[in-house]
């Protein structure tokens, strides 16, 4: 009877040792996975910062030049001329924004290879910041839009109180 008990305890001890070894291996694997995840997270954050820098710096440099291409508001021009100039300015801004984005994506693909950096949230953040910088730095455009807005409101108010054109 004692022989059976000793054999069964030996078997139990061997099983316990195997379980401990498996748990140690699992813990080592988990630790390696956590360390890799942390390294990957740091890697992507650094690359996103570099990419954000590459997207934003050209905007900060080129936006004022783009604004100066069209010049300041000239109130001696007609309403239609100012409206056309403002529409053309907006069109150039849109084209600049789209092609700047494509050019930078092309450059980044050449630098980093096949890594896709256009993640949804990062893409939205970069687009939002880029559009604020691009439109916010257009002082002449903003001045023209305000002037056109004031002219339109003044014209509408003048026509509301004008009774000579009633049919």
The major beta sheet can be summarized as: none
As for the number of domains, it is 1
**Count of individual helical segments:** 4
Radius of gyration: 33 Å
Please estimate the helix content. Answer: over 70%
Strand content: under 5%
**Helix-strand topology string:** HHHH
What shape does the CA trace take?
A: elongated
| CA-CA gap between termini | 120 Å
Can you give the mean pLDDT? 77
Q: Got a strand count?
A: 0
Word description of this protein:
With 167 residues, this protein is mostly helical. It has one domain (2-161). The chain is built from 4 helices and no strands. The protein has helices at 2-68, 79-112, 120-136, 139-161. Helix 1 (2-68) packs antiparallel against helix 2 and helix 1 (2-68) packs parallel to helix 3 (120-136). The longest helix has 67 residues, at 2-68. The mean pLDDT is 77.
Concise account of the structure shown:
Helices cover 84% and strands 0% of the residues. It has 167 residues and is an all-alpha fold.
């Amino acid at each position: 009877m004692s022989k059976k008990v000793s054999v069964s305890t030996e078997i139990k001890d061997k099983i316990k040792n195997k379980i401990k070894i498996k748990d140690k291996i699992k813990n080592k694997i988990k630790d390696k996975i956590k360390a890799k995840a942390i390294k990957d997270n740091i890697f992507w954050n650094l690359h996103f910062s570099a990419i954000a820098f590459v997207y934003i710096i050209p905007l900060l440099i080129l936006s004022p030049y783009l604004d100066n291409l069209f010049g300041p508001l000239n109130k001696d021009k007609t309403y239609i001329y100012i409206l056309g100039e403002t529409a053309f300015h907006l069109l150039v801004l849109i084209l600049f924004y789209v092609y700047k984005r494509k050019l930078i994506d092309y450059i980044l693909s050449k630098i980093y290879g096949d890594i896709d950096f256009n993640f949804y949230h990062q893409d939205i953040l970069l687009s939002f910041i880029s559009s604020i910088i691009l439109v916010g730095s257009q002082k002449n455009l903003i001045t023209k839009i305000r002037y056109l807005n004031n002219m339109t409101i003044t014209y509408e108010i003048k026509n509301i109180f004008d009774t000579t054109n009633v049919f």
